[in-house]
Amino acid sequence: MRPPIDSGPLGPEGDFMTPYRLHASLGYNLSLAARLQERRLDDGLKTLGLTRTTWCVLLAAGNEGLSQPSDIARFIGIDRTATSRALRHLETEGLLTRENGDADKRTTRVSLTALGHKRIAEGTPLAEANNRAMKAKLSSDDQRALFQLLGKLTAGEDTQFSRF
Question: Is residue 163 part of a domain?
Answer without folding.
Answer: no
